[in-house]
Amino acid sequence: MEGQSSRNSLLASGTVIAALISGVTALVTALLPWLLPEKAPTGVEPAAIVAMRDAPAKSGVPNLTIGTWTIVSSVDDAGNDYAGSTLRFLTQHDLGERVEASGFFEWRFGQQALGREQVVATYDPATRQLFIEGKYTDNPEVLAPGSFSAELSEDGRQLVNGRWGNVPGERVGILGTWEARR
User: Which of the pair, 35 or 76, is modelled with greater confidence?
Assistant: First the structure.
């Protein structure tokens, strides 16, 4: 009887281990699509995609996706300063006479994270003007999508003379000014 008890114990342990392996496999299978980079378009190698992202869209147009823009001054008309917030562009596309980029603001007030605002931007190389429109926020009780503009510095490392306002049809926010560096 004692030998059969050991055998049953071994079988039970094996069943538990098999269940654990099966569970981990299912979890990895579910999470893997989010952990892997997006599939490359047909005929384009991954290195070519990186080169397209890291190269300017056309001569004289800076790549907005390189690095993170740190907001160094962002004061609304009520005197609140959102310095320390960041702006990150994830994609950039050449549209002929202008460039379109998309990404997000990560808004902070002092040490408090307020939330993320998804944005789409248009850059005009002739005027060096960047226009950004907020699409939605992940914390609508605190953040309203905004409409932003700024001038890109000659060296492409600063956004200066920035202003922000409201997006039509969205909750009204407080107007302000901003500047950023990368």
Answer: 76
